[in-house]
């Protein structure tokens, strides 16, 4: 007989059923955290289809004067920033539009759609339970090897 974390902690010790609720809450937070990171990876995937990768040069609209090409980063200049860091912080996350938690800035819809697509993929991979999850694992575990072989 299967049961979840809420039921098992209620059976072990009814006074500790809050541990089951805490586990469920942590699962929700961890799912949101990791799906957001995977959403960033999906955003990078779509950004990599350009003829020149946007995180390799300093002549993009989001770059600052401190942007230094990768080959020139060998100098010990503390104010220099790599184009990859500026792409992530200023183009992907748009941190320069935020003043911290008081004013977090506008929603970046392209990134929000990538994160939403990840949540939808996770939902449909878990929709029918453990059997469909096992099939999804076969695809997601073997896909990187096939891509590496193709490349």
From TrEMBL:
Cystine residue pairs: 58-67
GO MF annotation list: serotonin binding; serotonin:sodium:chloride symporter activity
Keyword Metal-binding: no
A single GO BP: amino acid transport
Main location: membrane
Alphabetized Pfam families for the sequence: SNF
Subcellular location: Membrane
TM stretches of this protein: 21-46, 107-126
Superkingdom of source: Eukaryota
One GO CC term, this protein: plasma membrane
Family, per entry: Belongs to the sodium:neurotransmitter symporter (SNF) (TC 2.A.22) family.
Name assigned to this protein: Transporter
Source organism (scientific name): Homalodisca liturata
């Amino acid at each position: 007989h299967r049961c979840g974390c809420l039921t098992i902690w209620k059976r072990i010790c009814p006074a500790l059923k809050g541990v089951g609720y805490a586990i469920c809450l942590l699962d929700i937070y961890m799912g949101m955290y990791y799906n957001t990171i995977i959403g960033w990876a999906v955003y990078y995937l779509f950004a990599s289809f350009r003829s020149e990768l946007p995180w390799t040069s300093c002549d993009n609209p989001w770059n600052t004067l401190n942007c230094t090409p990768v080959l020139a980063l060998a100098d010990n200049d503390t104010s220099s920033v790599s184009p990859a860091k500026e792409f992530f912080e200023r183009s992907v996350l748009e941190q320069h539009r935020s003043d911290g938690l008081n004013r977090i800035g506008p929603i970046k819809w392209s990134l929000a759609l990538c994160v939403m697509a990840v949540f939808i993929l996770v939902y449909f991979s878990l929709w029918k339970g453990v059997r469909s999850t096992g099939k999804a694992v076969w695809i997601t575990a073997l896909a990187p090897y096939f891509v590496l072989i193709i490349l």
